[in-house]
Write a structure and sequence with these properties.
The protein is of the alpha+beta class. Helix content is 22%, strand content 26%. The chain has a single domain, classed as RutC-like (60s Ribosomal Protein L30, Chain: A, 2-Layer Sandwich), CATH 3.30.1330.40. The chain has a six-stranded mixed sheet with strand order 1-2-3-6-4-5, covered by helices on one side. The longest helix is centred in the middle third of the chain and has 18 residues.
């Protein structure tokens, strides 16, 4: 019987300043689960959040890129994204325009987007990722 690959818990020293007790990512073989990132300053989550959902979406995506780089991956490895918005009707279009700019045309990940009643730090948007790296995700980058 073949044993499944071990789970690796990635808490990155150079990752975005965490707002709660979590690993930045968990990987199992070629699959990675990237914790939802907030639009916080990556070094100090006590600083004010950017104004507006477009600026917050950019901050979230940049924080996701930091986490991905920390485990030897990038946005090309994203298979699925989940987006959480606190004001869906107001912010959906602006978030979409900002989010889509991070991926090449024709290479958009699968995605779910939901409206929620609140997010940590009073954020307008949070995004988490499911990634796939065929050669596996290294224990450290």
């Amino acid at each position: 019987m073949t044993l499944p690959p071990p789970m690796l818990f990635h808490t990155l020293d150079n990752g975005p300043d965490r707002v709660a007790p979590f690993s930045h990512a968990v990987s199992i073989g070629p699959w990675g689960f990237i914790t939802g990132q907030m639009p916080t300053d990556p070094r100090d989550n006590s600083l004010p959040l950017p104004e507006g959902v477009a600026a917050q979406t950019r901050a979230v995506m940049e924080n996701l890129k930091i986490v991905l780089a920390g485990i030897g991956c990038d946005l090309s490895h994203v298979a699925m994204a989940r987006v959480f918005l606190t004001d869906f009707a107001r912010d959906y279009a602006a978030m979409n325009a900002t989010y889509a700019a991070y991926f090449p045309p024709g290479r958009l990940p699968a995605r779910t987007c939901v409206g929620v009643t609140g997010l940590a730090k009073g954020a307008l948007v949070e995004i988490d990722l499911l990634i796939y790296r065929p050669e596996g995700i290294p224990p450290t980058a």
